[in-house]
Amino acid sequence: LEVGSFVLLAALISSLSETQMAADQIALQVCQFSFLPAYAVSEAASVLAGQAVGARRDDLVLPVAHLCLRVAGAYTLACSLVFVGFGRLIAAGFTGDAALATTAVHLLYVAAVFQTFDGANIAARSILRGVGDVRFAAVVGVVTAWVMTPPLAWLLGWRAGLGAFGGWLGLCGECVIGALVLWHRLERGRWRAVARATRPVEERLVA
After folding, report:
1. Can you give the C-alpha Rg of the chain in angstroms?
2. Is 200 left (phi over 0), alpha (psi -120 to 50) or beta?
3. pLDDT tens per residue, range 135-187
């Protein structure tokens, strides 16, 4: 369901023009350098969080989450600075078309804004999955994807004439809202009841 939102975004952008679609693809390729390492770190943190719950050390979950946020956030922040400082040089490595390069640079600027939030989003979602709070993380991901990205892509990209830039603003909103909601869940400890439910019945009775 979440991927479906992203597919619809790509369809909306591709229907605008070849330049808009090409710029979207360039920016997506560049963003992989920040997304995939942050995802890898978050998956490792998910394992550690799950081990902490299994060892009945729920007190270790938040320290693991905060460490994951610092590592993934530092990497995505560094990538954001690169996008801002070297966006035109990066785009020039993909195309010699001035109009296409300019459009791609604008998308990289949007990516620079949401990259750090995306790292926080990925980290929180992975930690929640690791402790067993899978349903909440999935629902937040699906709802934020469909509420923010396709509607804003249509409203800002089509109606306001911003093109792919409008669609990427929707992605930015999705990442920011998702990160805030998921981290609120983590910090407030509302995952603890779900984590306890993953343990054997006799351990839950003792707790």
Report:
1. 19
2. beta
3. 999 999 999 999 998 898 889 888 888 888 988 998 889 999 999 999 999 99
Please, which residues have CB within 8 angstroms of residue 119's CB and are 6 or more apart in sequence? 34, 38, 69, 72, 73, 75, 76, 77
- pLDDT single digits (tens) 64-116: 999 999 999 999 999 999 999 999 999 999 999 999 999 999 999 999 988 88
Is 60 exceeded by the pLDDT of residue 124? yes
Give the separation between CA 72 and CA 66, rounded to whole angstroms. Answer: 10
**The tokens of 70 are what?**
């610092």
Which H or E run includes 2?
helix 2-14
- Distance between CA 181 and CA 98 in Å, rounded? 39
Both structure tokens of 127: 């930690």
Burial class (CB within 10 angstroms; exposed 0-12, middle 13-18, buried 19+) of 3: exposed
**Angstrom distance (rounded) from CA 122 to CA 101:** 29
Interacting residues of 70 by C-beta distance below 8 A, sequence separation 6+: none
